[in-house]
Design goal:
Layout (H helix, E strand, L loop, with lengths): L16 H4 L7 E2 L11 H10 L12 H15 L8 E4 L2 H12 L5 E4 L17 E4 L3 E3 L2 E3 L2 H7 L4 E7 L11 H13 L3 E5 L16 H4 L7 E5 L13 E4 L3 H11 L8 H13 L1 H22 L6 E2 L7 E5 L8 H6 L3 E2 L1 E2 L8 E5 L4 H19 L1
Parallel strand pairs: 1-13, 3-4, 3-7, 7-8, 8-9
Antiparallel strand pairs: 2-10, 5-6, 9-10, 11-12, 12-15, 14-15
Length: about 375
């Protein structure tokens, strides 16, 4: 089947957070991580079929969904899981928050590695718990962990470490040895590792592969929580469906207890969209990745030719991480927004001077946005 990623689809009057953010101004949105593509027709067909039944009551995950998920994990990562390991949740951000509720007490410390997705900074109890920030380091052309700094920063109160792999916003796909090294430090200090792997299917660099943290370090699986969702890959962010995979029964019980009464259940159509994505979404995803690879090439070729801008290597995600420090601006995102391009500012990820650009959109829209950026910098330099 041929899939259409070139057609520009209006999102006016759909309540799109991405497009409503600029209040009717002529600003093209390349910020929040949802795509401007129609979802896979196979998923649309499954949702239409489910809507033929007129009742949408409280819903649990079906056997068909579990079978589709487990087969998907075997196919993608050669990872076999047990049914009881899975806890379904409405989103990865709320799942991160639940981990903090489950595994941290007042006075405890948790560790993250900026630049990182902005919710990592705030999901813990900021009144009673301490966040330890150990920045990634850039070696050669990719970002990775600073193992010496991590070891030095661990305290007797450090109870949890939150990873993001593949990494948002630096686009790194961590190698098995990197994950093993980080988890070895965690094991030395009896630290729980929470691994956000929401971008695990969006691998653009075909010479690398994503390995789940727990698969890389199976001997430490009793202290690892894996968070995943099909939402980013299949453009289903509004469906609110994700899952935690927790092999250890004690950690799983603590997590489930933390979710009880404070986290809403996954909805009927969200479950159905997930099942359809796992069962039938593969061909659409393959076509999507080809399109995204070409879009990233366009971004890199265009902006790397602009004095003051440098596009980082993008092994995964559809989010270009751009070094704009060479422009000498106090707020690069605000500068481009004033000129019609809505980007995410690096400051929210803990890295000032950078911007993040979502290139999961029709190429014509992307080209217009890039043209605006080139023109803006050209005028700045003159």
């Amino acid at each position: 089947m041929n899939y259409d990623f070139d057609t520009v689809i209006s999102r006016e009057n759909t309540g799109s957070m991405k497009w409503e953010a600029y209040g009717g101004r002529d600003v093209l949105p390349f910020w929040v991580a949802d795509m401007d593509f129609a979802i896979a027709p196979e998923i649309t067909a499954a949702l239409k079929a489910r809507m033929e039944h007129p009742i949408f009551g409280y819903t649990v995950a079906s056997d068909e969904l579990f079978d589709a998920l487990t087969q998907h994990l075997v196919t993608e990562f050669d990872w076999r899981i047990e049914r009881e390991w899975v806890v379904w949740v409405p989103g990865v951000v709320s799942a991160l928050s639940a981990c903090c509720r489950a595994y941290l007490k007042p006075g405890d410390h948790t560790m993250i590695h900026p630049p990182i997705y902005h919710h990592f900074f705030t999901v813990h109890d900021q009144q009673t718990q301490t966040l330890i920030e150990v920045p990634l380091v850039k070696r050669d052309d990719r970002w990775t962990y600073d193992l010496a700094a991590i070891e030095q920063a661990i305290t007797p109160e450090t109870r949890m470490m939150m990873l993001c792999t593949p990494h948002n916003p630096t686009c790194t796909v961590f190698e098995v040895e990197e994950l093993r090294a980080v988890c070895a430090l965690a094991e030395q200090h009896d630290i729980i590792v929470v691994s956000d792997e929401i971008h695990n299917e969006l691998i653009l660099n075909q010479s690398v592969r994503h390995v789940p943290t727990v698969k890389a370090v199976p001997d430490y699986q009793h202290k690892i929580v894996t968070l995943m969702s099909q939402s980013k890959t299949y453009n289903l962010a509004g469906m609110n469906c994700a899952y935690a995979i927790i092999p250890d029964p004690v950690l799983r019980k603590q997590y489930s207890d933390a979710c009880f009464e404070v986290m809403p259940g996954v909805t009927t159509l969200a479950y159905e969209s997930a099942r359809a994505a796992f069962e039938s979404g593969g061909p659409w995803r393959a076509a999507l990745l080809d399109y995204l690879r070409d879009n990233y090439t366009l971004v890199a070729d265009t902006l790397n030719a602009v004095p003051g801008l440098s596009v980082e290597r993008c092994d995964a995600t559809y989010l270009a991480w751009i070094d704009a420090t060479g422009l000498g601006l106090n707020d690069a995102a605000a500068f481009f927004e004033e000129r019609g391009v809505g980007l995410s500012g690096g400051e929210q990820f803990g890295q000032s001077g950078f911007v993040r650009l979502n290139f999961a959109c029709p190429r014509a829209m992307l080209q217009t946005g890039l043209d605006r950026m080139v023109e803006a910098v050209s005028r700045l330099n003159t």
